[in-house]
Amino acid sequence: MAIKKSELYSALWKSCDELRGGMDASQYKDYILVLLFVKYVSDKYAGQPNAVIDVPVGGSFTDMVALKGDKDIGDKINKIIGKLADANTPLKGVIESTDFNNADKLGSGKEMVDRLSKLIAIFQDPGLDFSRNRAEDDDLMGDAYEYLMRHFATESGKSKGQFYTPAEVSRVIAKVIGVAHATRPDQTIYDPTCGSGSLLLKAYNEAPVDVSIYGQEKDGATTALAKMNMILHNCPTAEIAPGGHSTLVDPFFKAQDKSLKTFDFVVANPPFSDKAWKTGFNPAQDEYKRFEDGVPPAKNGDYAFLLHLIRSMKSTGKGAIILPHGVLFRGNSEADIRRNLIKKGIIKGIIGLPANLFYGTGIPACIIVLDKEHAAARKGIFMIDASKWFMKDGNKNRLRHQDIHKIVDTFNKQLEIDKYSRMVPLSEIADPKNDYNLNIPRYIDSTEPEDLQDIEGHLKKGIPNRDIEGLAPYWKVCPALQRKLFGPGERAGYSQLKLESAQIKPTIFSHKEFVAFTQQVHTLFKTWQDKNTDRLKGIRQDDHPKSLIEMISEDLLTVFAQVPLIDQYDVYQHLMTYWADTMQDDVYMIVSDGWKDASRIRTVIEDKDKKSRETADLVIGKQKFKADLIPPALVVARYFGEEKAAIEAIEAGIASVTQAMEEIAEEHGGEEGLLAEVKNDKGTITRGSVTARLREIKGDPDSADERKVLEDYLELIEKESAASRNMKEAQKALDTKVAAKYPKLSEAEIKVLVVNDKWLARLSADVQSELDRVSQALTGRVKQLAERYATPLPELNKEVADLSARVDEHLKRMGFVP
After folding, report:
1. What is the tens place of the pLDDT at every residue in 410-445?
2. Strand ordering across the sheet containing 494-497
């Protein structure tokens, strides 16, 4: 059975446990990723003639497996990696730079042997077989590499996590620079500060044709990561410049006339505010003419990277760069450069991002989108303020799927959305009051309006019509509902609630207009469901899961695009969250093993080290089983309803007996109660203690009342015990039937259980939760307004005065004189 995507990730991350303690994450990532790389190319290319990577005899992961327990394991691993590098020129200086015989990091003697042997054993797991690694955008191994890179960046600390651009931000850039419109394989993508290559690869994956990749990275170890990343993502021909050279000081890619090579698409996430960018060269004498629009400050290289990127663009080039917000408004030489670039029309747009997205810094950043092709005709700069749209993820913030999609849709369609986006005319930017300052809040006010208190409403009672009109989107859908809830107030400009506060919620829920709206939403979801059920049931082996989720999620967005009161991106997020949590693993299992094999139950494997234990779904005697694709509850609900009802009836009986026992214990369990003698030190009553007490007082005429209570309680204990036995037997019988049912399920039955009962049922519940949110928001606001202005201030003052007078009277009677 194929390993789940999530289990693959956790297995790889577990490998890091073998190295933690000896070194920082920024160091042990090199060991893990090199070993992962060797395992991958060995599985995929060993024994394959004319393969992209030549895996020589003595240079494979299989050779490493033979070293487990070997006293010279570290040195011999180095030699295996060396043979693999010698056989492949692109790998020279890449994979063999990590020393597996380093006693300072890996320990010496037995410690090193045990550590490396355990590490190899983890990668030896049969579930980590990459020989069937998916091609194109469904590269499972590439995604795993991405997962590890993100976690390494998280653990590497402030100064060492900048080798990785968050995938979510990379996805935004890839989708807004226009690489999806590439038409020729000779078109190019370039990143002058490529890090581990994640941003480059995201841009590459957006292209419909096999465009060429170019990247340069100053850090040598990170350059190695980038080269391995390209191979793991099936881009072995990508040109990654040798490490050790700064792009600003020594750009690697040049044209025949020694000028900078230019590219169709450029992307970059350079180090923020680099204080040493000028080290090694004089910008005023730059032979590549990158600083004609001005020289950036000596202690801040943000604009240096931007100017390099612009110079590296073809005349029709497009691109984007991530920079701190300061580039939008800082003065002096940076203001001059900014003014020149705006006048040239090169800046197409600016996307303001949330703070704390990036590894290595918590400051907010922005994406500056560049376009030379249409620069001359540019009349404005399109701005988006996405700073408030994100989710918390540990100590970092992350863009959600819905945040990414909204940014991309808004930018690419140039949609103007209140408090979120607008096209800002160049004339407004050039106006003396703005003076080419691009700080987004100057042009987009994203602050939420204050919920103003109405003084007259507080003084004289009445709900201000202004507040009711603030709920206009709801009244547009349910105009009669407004009239049902509110009537004219005692004076102009104010209304009053026509019913009691407790009736607000049922009135909204039952109103025919809201019921019709609910039905409309469910009908739309059914439209999407009907369109995609056959598509989901038609999943075949070797299909592409990412293509599938893209199709069905885009359909969902389209269906809900015109639904009032519900944000289409909220519905989309429900699907994408469920995809990430559950559905993705299901689909990957199906495309790997087929519906029948993926649905089989398997025996739970106990972890001998006790570091983790898999939870069993079915327990029959001493046998424990796991159902990866179809939870037993779904099989029970569809095929064993009577058995389930019988067990629930037994459970209800047990609950009734337990309640009766609790009532007796509460009535007679006090210190002087009739059950006081049978309680143990923990305050509980057992069958043994009750039986023993009954023997003690047998025949005692003075203990008749106590004996009656004890006998009643003992009878309940025996009833509960018998019922519990019956329930265990019934549950065991049901589990046995369920386990026997799995192999008998037909493919059609499996598809109904997975698609209808599992996936679509969950998504339908998510849509209902959005409807509940709408009704709760309206109910909450109406109640808030009603309660806010229910009692006018004079009445409140009178109540306070009355209460004060009563307190004074009580004090006088008690002998206190105010």
Report:
1. 999 999 999 999 999 999 999 999 999 999 999 999
2. 463-464, 494-497, 486-488
d(CA 11, CA 128) in angstroms, rounded, equals 9
CA geometry: angle at 192 spanning 191 and 195, to 5°? 75
Concatenated DSSP letters of 151-196 = HHHHHT-TTT-TT---HHHHHHHHHHTTGGG---TT-EEEETT-TT
Measured CA to CA, the distance from residue 258 to residue 251 in angstroms comes to: 10
Distances (CA, A) of 332 to 293, 335, 339, 363, 437: 13, 5, 11, 22, 12
Give the C-alpha separation, 677 to 499, whole Å: 57
Residue 314 structure tokens: 């073809």
The radius of gyration of the chain from alpha carbons, rounded to an integer in Å, stands at 34
Taking Cα atoms as reference points, which of 451, 456, 513 lies closest to residue 482?
A: 513
Residue 25, φ and ψ in degrees, nearest 5: -60, -35
**Residue showing tokens 């004609």:** 292
Residues 6+ apart with CB under 8 A from 428: 380, 434, 443
Longest dimension (CA), the chain: 117
Distance between CA atoms of residues 226 and 170, nearest Å = 15
Residue 63 has pLDDT above 50, yes or no: yes
Per the structure block, which two tokens stand in for 90? 């692109």
Alpha-carbon 511 to chain mean position: 37
CA distance 375 to 372: 5
Q: Looking at the DSSP assignment, which residues form a beta bridge with residue 603?
A: 625
Q: Which amino acid is at 541?
A: Q
- In this structure, are residues 350 and 306 in contact, taking their beta carbons and an 8 Å threshold? no
Q: At 665, is the secondary structure helix, strand, or coil?
A: helix
Read off the tokens for 99.
């020393």
Helix, strand, coil shares, percent, the chain, to 5: 55, 10, 35
CB 390 within 8 Å of CB 357 = yes
Q: What is the pLDDT of residues 682-728, one digit of tens each?
A: 888 889 999 998 998 888 888 889 899 999 999 999 999 999 999 99
Calculate the average pLDDT of the chain: 89
Measure the CA–CA gap between 72 and 58, rounded to whole angstroms.
15
DSSP character at residue 260: B
Report the distance separating Cα 650 and Cα 723, nearest Å.
7
Tokens 């307004």 — which residue?
A: 785
- Residues 196, 149 contacting (CB under 8 angstroms): yes
Could you give the angle at which helices 632-639 and 641-668 cross, rounded to 10 degrees? Answer: 110
Which CA distances in Å does 806 have to 802, 803, 811?
6, 5, 9
Q: Residue with structure tokens 């992962």?
A: 36
